[in-house]
Amino acid sequence: MKLGLIGFGRIGKIHYYNILQRIPEAEIVMVSDPMADLSAIGTAIGTPDDILNHEEIEAVIICSPTDTHADLVEACAKKGKHIFCEKPLDLSLERISAAIKLVEEHGVKLMMGFNRRFDANFLKIRELVLNGSVGEPQIVKITSRDPGPPPLTYLRESGGMFLDMSIHDFDMARYIMGKEVTGVFAHAAVFCGEDIEAAGDIDTAIITLTFEDQSMAVIDNSRKAVYGYDQRLEVFGSKGMVNVDNNTPDKHHFYNEQGVHSALPLHFFLERYTESYLLEMRQFINALKNGGKVPVGGEDARQATRIALAAKKSVKEKRWVSLEEI
Amino acid sequence: MKLGLIGFGRIGKIHYYNILQRIPEAEIVMVSDPMADLSAIGTAIGTPDDILNHEEIEAVIICSPTDTHADLVEACAKKGKHIFCEKPLDLSLERISAAIKLVEEHGVKLMMGFNRRFDANFLKIRELVLNGSVGEPQIVKITSRDPGPPPLTYLRESGGMFLDMSIHDFDMARYIMGKEVTGVFAHAAVFCGEDIEAAGDIDTAIITLTFEDQSMAVIDNSRKAVYGYDQRLEVFGSKGMVNVDNNTPDKHHFYNEQGVHSALPLHFFLERYTESYLLEMRQFINALKNGGKVPVGGEDARQATRIALAAKKSVKEKRWVSLEEI
Amino acid sequence: MKLGLIGFGRIGKIHYYNILQRIPEAEIVMVSDPMADLSAIGTAIGTPDDILNHEEIEAVIICSPTDTHADLVEACAKKGKHIFCEKPLDLSLERISAAIKLVEEHGVKLMMGFNRRFDANFLKIRELVLNGSVGEPQIVKITSRDPGPPPLTYLRESGGMFLDMSIHDFDMARYIMGKEVTGVFAHAAVFCGEDIEAAGDIDTAIITLTFEDQSMAVIDNSRKAVYGYDQRLEVFGSKGMVNVDNNTPDKHHFYNEQGVHSALPLHFFLERYTESYLLEMRQFINALKNGGKVPVGGEDARQATRIALAAKKSVKEKRWVSLEEI
Amino acid sequence: MKLGLIGFGRIGKIHYYNILQRIPEAEIVMVSDPMADLSAIGTAIGTPDDILNHEEIEAVIICSPTDTHADLVEACAKKGKHIFCEKPLDLSLERISAAIKLVEEHGVKLMMGFNRRFDANFLKIRELVLNGSVGEPQIVKITSRDPGPPPLTYLRESGGMFLDMSIHDFDMARYIMGKEVTGVFAHAAVFCGEDIEAAGDIDTAIITLTFEDQSMAVIDNSRKAVYGYDQRLEVFGSKGMVNVDNNTPDKHHFYNEQGVHSALPLHFFLERYTESYLLEMRQFINALKNGGKVPVGGEDARQATRIALAAKKSVKEKRWVSLEEI
Fold first, then answer.
1. Which of the residues C16, C250, C253 would you substitute to probe the B interface, choosing the one with the greatest number of B C-beta atoms within 10 Å?
2. Closest Cα of chain A to C229: distance in Å?
3. Which of A220, B38, B176, D216 lies at a 20 to 30 A Cα distance from D111?
4. Taking a C-beta distance cutoff of 8 angstroms, is the pair D34, D15 a contact?
5. Is ipTM strictly over 0.90?
6. To probe the interface with C, which of B254, B267, B272 has the most C CB atoms within 10 Å?
7. Domains of chain B with bracketed CATH
8. Least confident among A250-254, B239-243, B254-258, C87-91
9. Using the beta-carbon criterion (under 8 Å), do A227 and C261 form an inter-chain contact?
């Protein structure tokens, strides 16, 4: 199974080395990134077109900037190449829908990089929901806080917190519940600096999601948790409740006269989701090899984006926004 | 300090025995309850009027049914007796305001029984907020779930979940934040049976509160957590985060081939808030003796009621409701 | 049920107020303590002899200094009064045996104040051992550390750490295992100051106990844990393991840039064992009223003392000491 | 840096793939194992002699059966090759000493595979001891229990539990304390089956270690913890206490009517110490490349073996055994 990789930034590198070192059944045969120094890696270098036209390449991993995703997805589809694309597929719902349509028409597989679905903690929750242990799920609670806001240059292109950051949580809520969201209410604020406000963005929010059967999810987001990356989840159902705490670098408790002290959560997503990135890529390769369905598809990207757009509207209009409006 | 007690139900008994056994500086000299068997207690029995007219009684503890609270508060005020009143003061905002006005006119003290403010866990959170450890509070999260719904007869008189149960959480949010709520969004559902729906009530909700400075609180409520009474709180601020877990009857962890097993939360409010009931009464007695302010006043009852009424309206109209509308 | 109380020090007061406030079926009718100011309590004051000769007193609670215990126990027995005696019964094994013999001859009940047996955590462990959850117990581990050493004046009369402090743990090991100890190895040291060494005592130890069936217990003691009172227990068996952690004043976790911080254990035995003191007294009263066996008898005192003496010998001779030698 | 690997069993494979995938600065150029199927790996295959005579190989990793370790270590030393050797170096103290002497004479580096020193939890404890946070360490407590006994064929060659299993804990105690052990007391038993007894071995033990300054360590071992691999450590010192709990596959807590349920420890050493194996090998490679000292040397093997032999003697003679006797 030969692959091409477009974009050798932070995430591109993760996928590159995971495949090189830990997924022996696949091989990246060409890498493209106009900005990165690729001289040290022992893989052929090319342009995106070189990858798209490479006859042996069956699938392409897209980790380039967001505004190139939809174009590249469509180009891959036209060339009959399967696609693994980092989120978001695009910031525009129309553009996403068009890309998905093209993908379907060309019969290629598109997997979206919602890597948190592959975290051991969330998988455990999913298992306990699916096997009925928690009964009918009624409330999902997601805490998702970053250790600090990204640079303003990044923020300005990101589509805003809901489309850039909360979108992971919207996907998680759908994934855990196995149901579609019907509407959104969001209250948001800026606490992390005037720059964010000037950029028209927000950094802190409480978002309530409603589902078809009146069950509900609540997400709280902050761009700046001084104690690090906070990623917790809880499902409350008719037969029980399950929650997961953060992972930590170690399990020590230190007792002195001042109190008991223990380790902060793993600092950020690279540390917390190391194994999730590996597992999602393994499942992508596996789906290609064995002809199955990819576990996260284009429709998942579309739904998460709709929720994000509804959240934006809800903040602006201070009301619950039905997904049907989006 | 001589006291009268009106209402010898579940809560009335708690106060009675706490004062008898553990608050030696006060004494209940007369008890009134037409429904309870008072023959075994060694205290004089009388009607509410007997208590109101008892010359030595300086303060009255009101634990009778909700619909008698406002009348009794006013009657006490007119007789110049200080008042400790279980929540709610009344279900009608006008009635509450009138009672508070009368209390103020007669210069008596009125303390409301929001006993959770006196729980060691929440006091600890309050301390860390007040001393600046968490910085500027941005998000308060309250989990508040009962082990099972009360009888329908109770529910029908209760004013509904927001006025009966969530009102404790509304008070807690105000207390922890030290700020006033500006608006409410609530999504609610019925998962615990058709009876509740038929009674026009709800049993599960997510409620977002907004504060003057854009900070926010989120409360999730359920009338039926099969694993018991779930009372947790978290404050997220600019300098840190603090949360408290449930209390348990013991701290055991049992490991066998199936997993690790530990104790459920203390079953319900009588177990969880045993010491809170004592501490609130001690502070009431103390405020009377030393002439200070009572820690929870009539205005607190009024504000919590306003939030509850806004939540009801929000569910009905599917929008954020400004407190100014109430 | 009328009782007399001899000794109104720290422990005597606990029993006094527990009975007064929370055990209505019993009443202390006379208190004796030559050193304490008893003017404020509303109970008759007398000499120990007054109590022994008081016709209505059925049982005596002995909380006076250690060197008076055996004499008072014997005097009570001769007068036909039941006895609740704080540990130790005596420091001399012969004296203990003699007192027990007299107690048996006079057919009175003697309960020893090993109050830790009545702690909710240890009761939970005992339950899981008795109901077979942990299978055949193989290893018991007890961590028992004080927040600081007692005054030297106390230490000099105490019989040393094994007889004064570890004796609780020796009793606990027997209680949890439900088996007799066959031998002891102890390694001890002095880390808390030259005074303790000068007094011929030790302050830190690891003690291994062996049981008839080769199962084993290990206790670690320190007179000075700077972080407070550390009382944990673990049982490892053929079907599982159970342990209990310390109780804390609250369940908060505070996260800031430095780490996660939580509450230290309850400071010392008065805080940790508040409820144990109540429960043991209730069981004593109950055994008297209903004619049952007291849950901790004189033989328990004798066995714990034998283990303590064996531990002393083991440290001195640097070898395992059979209980048969004692 | 070219390496040879002798022994491609469970541990040999771990080192092989760690170097192949995650330590790019080193390369295994030849593997030797008469029993394993090596056809699938892309590395040259040879006899141990081929490796010893391979001119480019600078260091040899020895993962063959225990009874070959000392011979291979000596052969490597004579050929001037650095050595990474799995524990134990040998079961005989004389043989170990001879091998160490030869290693020193030939000026090669010998690192012993006490991989637990490289576990994040124990490293954290070591850090808090070294930086003075716990003050002067007084008590070290090690819980070390396997999920099940190894096959009898293995047991018979293993030298017994102390030399095979507890030896890791003896090394850990020395490592954490940074001091030498002066004597040992051990009580041991057989609870896991007659076969173990017939083989002259034990499966459960409490071992007390004494150090030069009277500080102490206690280890409890079992060959069969039905709930999995239990690896905990605690250090108690003059300024505080630190302990580490087991690692788990996830951090979930599931609450239902029966209780709260969470994950068992990672099943066994392959899961628990995955990263420790990698880190120890990185440090070995690093020490070779940069000319530093290896972090675990032959003397560490010798001292751990002495403690194990003393423990055996202590069980037999039921007394504390000075290390000077060994």
1. C250
2. 11
3. D216
4. no
5. yes
6. B254
7. 2-108 (3.40.50.720), 116-325 (3.30.360.10)
8. C87-91
9. no
